[in-house]
Each structure stands twice: as structure tokens, then as C-alpha cells.
């Protein structure tokens, strides 16, 4: 099976999908042609949810590698701003109404 991980016959997979009307089973049977001795066990554990859920996890992992540094930079800049203005008084507002005295730094943290 390891020797055939990248040996994918996409034409056969397309024909199998048309025949079986199921994308995962099409690839299971296509892989079974490459690995006939493993064909009876290939499907074990490989369900549609298995494929879809793992794809979602890969997409989320890749997204986090993009988003997390940006979020960290945003938090760092906000904390620097809050520290810089921690003593600057301002009038706090709630529901667009004047409320109580606070500081710009504290409002930035809120």
C-alpha cells in the first residue's frame, strides 16, 4: 500500500465514481486495483465522514498557522496601546450614554 500512495489512476476513479455514485468508494476500489491483496481491508475505517472530517482538520490546521500569528500581533499591538494610554482619563459610554470616568487604556482592554 505504501508503494502505491501516489499511484492514483484518476481516470479509473472517475469511472468508478460514475458507476458507484460515491466518491470515497470510487477511490477505495481504485486503490484496490493497485493493491489487490489489500483490497478487502482498504475500506475498514475509511468512511465519508473520515475523509471529510480529516479534510476539515487539515484545513483548520492550515488556517490556524495563518491566523494565529496575526491574532498574536493584534493582541501585542493592543496591549502596547493600552499600556501607553493606561493613565489617560476618558468618559466611558454605555449604550451611547455617558457613564463613568475610566481610562483609554482600560477601555482598550475591555
Automatic annotation (TrEMBL):
The keyword Cytoplasm does not apply. This is Adenylosuccinate lyase. The keyword Lyase applies. Keywords: Lyase. InterPro entries: L-Aspartase-like. GO terms for molecular function: (S)-2-(5-amino-1-(5-phospho-D-ribosyl)imidazole-4-carboxamido) succinate lyase (fumarate-forming) activity; N6-(1,2-dicarboxyethyl)AMP AMP-lyase (fumarate-forming) activity. GO terms for biological process: 'de novo' AMP biosynthetic process. One of its GO terms (cellular component) is cytosol.
Amino acid at each position: 500500500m505504501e508503494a502505491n500512495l501516489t499511484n492514483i489512476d484518476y481516470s479509473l476513479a472517475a469511472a468508478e465514481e460514475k458507476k458507484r455514485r460515491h466518491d470515497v468508494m470510487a477511490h477505495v476500489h481504485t486503490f484496490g486495483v493497485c493493491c489487490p491483496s489489500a483490497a478487502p481491508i482498504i475500506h475498514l475505517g475509511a468512511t465519508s465522514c473520515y475523509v471529510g472530517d480529516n479534510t476539515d482538520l487539515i484545513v483548520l490546521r492550515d488556517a490556524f498557522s495563518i491566523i494565529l500569528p496575526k491574532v498574536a500581533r493584534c493582541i501585542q499591538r493592543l496591549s502596547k496601546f493600552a499600556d501607553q494610554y493606561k493613565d489617560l482619563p476618558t468618559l466611558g459610554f454605555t449604550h451611547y450614554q455617558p457613564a463613568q470616568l475610566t481610562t483609554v487604556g482600560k477601555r482598550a482592554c475591555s
